[in-house]
Amino acid sequence: MTASEQWWSERGRFIVLFGLSAIWLLPVVLLTATSLKTQGQLYEPMRVLPQPVAWENYWTVMVEAFPFARYMLNSLVVSVLSVAGDVLSSAFIAYGFAQLRFPGRRALFLIMLSTMMFPFAVRMIPLFLIFKQLGWINTYYPLIIPSYLGTHAFFIFLLHQFFRGLPKALIESARIDGANELQIWWKVVLPLSKPALAVVAILAFEQSWGDFLSPLLYINDTSKYTLPLGLYSLITGDDVASQWHLVMAGTVTMILPVIIIFALAQRFFVRGITLSGMKG
Fold first, then answer.
1. Total Cβ atoms within 10 A of residue 161
2. What own/partner pairs with CB < 8 Å and gap ≥ 24 does 66-73 have?
């Protein structure tokens, strides 16, 4: 390839990536622009950018419209506990599939993977009936406890791929030294798997933080609302149209923690995805 062809190849990749980035950012730009509009500007379809900018929308959402701080704290508690459960349970199950040998291992692994084909909507009614019998309705238990039972097959599969690529000599050495499987998992495997665990933690946080359907299904008390459910309360009143600028302002505020966490952990995320994809 000549220098000219290489130059055009690099510029072509840059143009394609820039275009894809612009397409991805367009909804975010429109979301942010709408969050800064006044109520009157919502009915002007040709106006994309707010003029004047209504910064007070964020104050209204966070202080006046509804108990924003309370709902954010509820979401934070649920998300942190769910992330801890997803990371621990997925890593524990993935280690068993990746490093232990027992009858029916492959069949069980395939059955576990097949659960990814069943969306939450299919399991929604049976789960609700089970949690109702347990007396967990209007509590956070249905939002947290399943995370400790290895319910996310994708997280297990991701860690399974990573664990299979760990040095077998290191694990065998720990066994020769007298360590049991639990000690090997906790003291050897987990410290070596920080990039993959970071990926699972980020994905689990994003999923739990933005979950709307599960809290809507299980939570009745308004004081226990998570942030997505609290934002939904802004558009269920009589004056629906006038609330959209506040809903957008609340949505921008809600997605900021996810963006910040991803920006801080991007190095681990990219490395974990790359390593998990290469092992197998």
1. 18
2. 66/230, 66/233, 66/234, 67/223, 67/230, 68/227, 68/230, 68/250, 68/253, 70/223, 71/225, 71/226, 71/227, 71/229, 71/230, 72/227, 72/254
State in Å, rounded, how far the first CA of the chain is from the last one. 34
pLDDT recorded at residue 259: 86
Q: What's the one-letter identity of residue 52? A: P
Q: Is 5 exposed, middle or buried (0-12, 13-18, 19+ CB in 10 A)?
A: exposed
Residue 280 pLDDT:
45
Q: What is the CATH number of the domain that holds 133?
A: 1.10.3720.10
The count of domains in the chain is 1
Tokens of 251: 């949505």
- Give the Cα separation of 94 and 4 in Å (integer): 49
60 belongs to a structural domain: no
Mean pLDDT, rounded, of the chain: 86
Q: Which domain holds residue 115?
A: 66-278
pLDDT in tens, 107-130: 999 999 999 888 888 899 999 999
Residues above pLDDT 70, as percent of the chain: 89
